[in-house]
Every structure is written in structure tokens, then in C-alpha cells.
Write a structure and sequence with these properties.
By secondary structure, the protein is of the alpha+beta class. The chain has helices at 40-43, 69-74, 87-96; strands at residues 6-8, 15-17, 36-37, 56-63, 109-115, 118-125, 132-137, 151-155.
Length: 157
């Protein structure tokens, strides 16, 4: 799976997100995200429970080329639905696999998720050892500077 914007950093390591019941939402995960939970999760209408999920393999990438979310996630050349994690899976990953989160920059680790046919990005922070999370629509056009080595977590294809 080639992507000109990203370099695989979890190669050779199997990362499995455990099964979930689908009921967790990021907007409701204030006990986990003690630094902050962006109110845009509610504003954008993402505070919606999902379906239960089975165990799923994920891969972690690091940015190597500047790009927008559309370019970074679109760089896989796949239907974006195939890359999405559920909100419950994102929460489970953050709880169980924190060592894979980017620590050197605000909004350092990106996850793609879908609610009611719309794609969003959950950007997880780890400032001063506390977790925060910000919501962005997938169409958000900021160019993310690869110098910061943002991380991207997607379902393994």
C-alpha cells in the first residue's frame, strides 16, 4: 500500500484493536480525553453511537509530504470507507495503544471516521501526558506540514 504522503512506521508490528460494542462516542469520552474534547464533535453531529466491531488490524503511518486531509487519506488510492475506524475503535486504540500516538505536536495523530455518510478526522493530542481530541471535517483544507511527522492510523487493507 503506497502513499506518497506517508511512510509506514508500524511495519512488522501487528496492532490489533480489540472488539467494541460500538456505544462509545468521542464526544462522550471526557474521562479518557482529560486535556480536552473539542465541542465540534457535537456541533458536527458526530455524537452518534455506532455498531459493534470485531477485532481489527490497523497500521500507523507518519507524514513525509505536506498535504490536506483529502490528499493524505486519498493517497492510499482506496475507497475512504475502507480506511475508517469507528469512534469506539478510536477510543479503544487510544486506551490500548497509546505508545503509537504522536507526542511532538498538537493534533498529532489522525484517525478517519464516518458518521451518517460524512467523513471526519479525529486528531488526538498528548500534551503534557494528558489526552485531547479535536474534530475536523474531511474536507478541511489546511495543509499539514510533514516536518511535524503527524501520524495517521487506518484499518489495515
Amino acid at each position: 500500500m503506497q502513499n506518497e504522503y506517508l511512510k509506514l512506521i508500524s511495519g512488522g508490528t501487528e496492532i490489533v484493536v480489540g472488539e467494541t460494542d460500538g456505544t462509545d462516542t468521542i464526544a462522550g469520552a471526557g474521562k479518557l480525553f482529560t486535556w480536552s474534547v473539542d465541542p465540534n464533535f457535537v456541533k458536527y453531529g458526530t455524537n452518534v453511537k455506532g455498531r459493534p466491531t470485531k477485532k481489527a488490524r490497523v497500521q500507523v503511518f507518519e507524514t513525509i509530504k505536506d498535504g490536506t486531509f483529502a490528499q493524505i487519506f486519498g493517497g492510499f488510492g482506496e475507497n475512504l470507507d475502507r480506511l475508517c475506524l469507528s469512534q469506539s475503535q478510536i477510543i479503544r486504540f487510544v486506551k490500548d495503544d497509546r505508545e503509537w500516538l504522536c507526542r511532538n505536536v498538537r493534533n498529532g495523530t489522525f484517525f478517519l471516521f464516518k458518521v451518517n455518510y460524512e467523513l471526519f478526522i479525529s486528531a488526538v493530542d498528548l500534551p503534557m501526558g494528558m489526552l485531547g481530541v479535536t474534530a475536523f471535517p474531511q474536507s478541511y483544507n489546511l495543509i499539514w506540514d510533514s516536518w511535524y511527522r503527524y501520524r495517521v492510523v487506518v484499518l489495515q487493507l
